[in-house]
Structures are given as C-alpha cells and as structure tokens.
Amino acid sequence: MSALQRNNVSVRGAGDRTMVFAHGFGCDQNMWRHVAPAFETSFQTVLFDNVGAGGSDLSAYDAAKYASLSGYADDLIEIIRELGLTKTLFVGHSVSAMIGVLASVKAPDLFADLVLVGPSPRYIDDADYIGGFGAAQIEELLEFLAENPMAWSQAMAPAIMGNPERPELGEELTTSFCRTDPEIAAAFARATFTSDNRDDLARVTARTLVLQCSEDIIAPLQVGEYVRDHIPGSQMVVLAATGHCPNLSAPAEVISAIRDFV
Predict the structure, then answer these.
(1) Which CATH number belongs to the domain containing residue 104 in this structure?
(2) The one catalytic residue among 28, 74, 113, 216
(3) Distant-in-sequence, close-in-space partners of 154: CB < 8 Å, separation ≥ 6
(4) Domain containing residue 96
(5) What distance in Å separates the CA atoms of residue 206 and residue 105, rounded to the nearest whole number?
(6) Which residue of 48, 61, 104, 129 has the lowest C-beta tally within 10 Å?
(7) Is 158 among the domain residues?
(8) How do residues 48-85 score in pLDDT, each as one tens digit?
C-alpha cells in the first residue's frame, strides 16, 4: 500500500513550494479546512490523516509501530518522499507539532520550515520543567479514556477547545473524538501524553515558528516559551486566540501569523 493511500493524502493548490498540514490528537485533516485553502494560490498544499484517524486505512494500524510518536514521524517522511518533495514548509498542530520535529530531525532535507501550533515536548511536569500536568493527572486521564471513551470525549473536548461562548466548536471536537476507534485513541493518547521530546528540540535545523495561544490548558505559555528557547533560532508568536485549537477558533489569526513567517 502506498503512503498516499494509507494516510488518505490530499494534494491541492499550486506553487513552487509545498506546505504540509498535520492534525492533532482525535482530529483529522478536516480541521485545517479554514486555514489551508488560504495558501492554495501560492503553495501546493498537502493534507493527510494519521493512521487511525479520518479516512486513513485502519488495516495499516500497527500497535507496536504507533506506540511512540516516532512511528507517525516515519509515516510523514514516507508521504513527503513518495510525493517527491524536499524543503517543505510543515504546519503541525498539537501532537503533530512534535511529530514534525521528530521527522525533521530524521530527514532534515525534507523540511525547510516548521510552524508548530500549540506544541508540547512533554506534558508532564519534571523538576524545573513545567509541562502543565502531574504524572498522576495524566495517568488518570488515560485510564478515564480507556474505560469510557464517550464520556472522556464529552468532558475533555470542550475544555481543550476553550471558547465556551462558542459551544459549537467544542461540539465539533467532541464529535471528532468520538469518531476515532476507542482502542486506537487510547493508544495514541498514551503515546502523546507520556512522550518526552525535549532533547530533540536542539537537533532541529529547520527555520521554526511557534504559534502559542494566549490561554491553553494543554500547552500553556511556559511550554511554548520552552520550545522557542530550545529550538535554535526559532521565534514565537502569541496569538490573541484562546484554547488549544486556533485553526478552528481563530483561523484568520493563524493564517496571518503563517503569512508573516513565510
């Protein structure tokens, strides 16, 4: 099976450069529908679903491969190589920001620029590092998800999305979470929330922009600052947007920040 089929790859737009969009946990490429089209006149755009999400081929799911974010990074590299691309501009949301970091370290020729939206190299606090969660909190969240995926989604999605004055956004994220196979969701959540990619940041050679929401319970400001401070030469823009999904809640602001960067 080709990577393009496995990951339900969509190629649109026109331009000398290619922008690759990657979605976060519990989501799929549809989460970029308000952002990606803005770049189709000047870039070729590539969107895909991580295995286990959206229109990806579920038969390709391998529990051992995807037990860590490295397996998803290998898929991203395979997609870009199968398309015959180099020096792409990668835009990754949430966990896919770190998947992009890992892929860029493994295959630096494929990535000229990284835009990391709400990145976190580690969600669990550690010594003088603030990730936003205690180890016990994360384990409790993972156990809750494994035991009752529907209740977890209904409780967590609105909190992750933020913007309570716009309940339709939380409802969309809840629906997206609930579409994911429960066992795959639980495994991806464990790979995500127990990951520690802090040491990988210093190995990034791509020009990097960190897009940080002003209030984000999943990746707080200190985390964005940590990523900025540990990726050589990177810069950070703090958005007025709140919540963890500005690609849905504040797409115009995300588009503007990316345009200023490119």
Answers:
(1) 3.40.50.1820
(2) 216
(3) 174
(4) 3-134+197-261
(5) 9
(6) 129
(7) no
(8) 999 999 999 999 999 999 999 999 999 999 999 999 99
Residue 94 annotated as catalytic: yes
3-state SS string for the chain: CCHHHHCCCEEEECCCEEEEEECCCCCCHHHHCCCHHHHCCCEEEEECCCCCCCCCCHHHCCCCHHHCHHHHHHHHHHHHHHCCCCCEEEEEECHHHHHHHHHHHHCHHHEEEEEEECCCCECECECCECCCECHHHHHHHHHHHHHCHHHHHHHHHHHHHCCCCCHHHHHHHHHHHHHCCHHHHHHHHHHHHCCECHHHHCCCCCEEEEEEEEECCCCCHHHHHHHHHHCCCCEEEEEEEECCCHHHHCHHHHHHHHHHHC
Nearest to 50 by CA among 103, 88, 89: 103
> Can you say whether the dihedral through the CA atoms of 125, 242, 51, 72 is positive or negative?
negative
User: Does 167 reside within a domain?
Assistant: no
Structure tokens belonging to residue 68: 């860590």
Residues 185 and 177 sit within 8 Å (Cβ to Cβ) = yes
pLDDT tens per residue, range 172-214: 888 888 888 989 999 999 999 999 999 999 999 999 999 999 9
Number of structural domains the chain divides into: 1
**Token reading at 231:** 């990726």
Give a yes or no: residue 151 inside a domain.
Answer: no
Residue 143 lies in a domain: no
The sheet that has 88-93: what strands, in order across it?
10-13, 43-47, 17-22, 88-93, 111-117, 207-215, 235-242
pTM value > 0.85: yes
The reply to whether 244 belongs to the active site is: yes
- Of 75, 93, 94, 96, which one is the catalytic site residue? 94
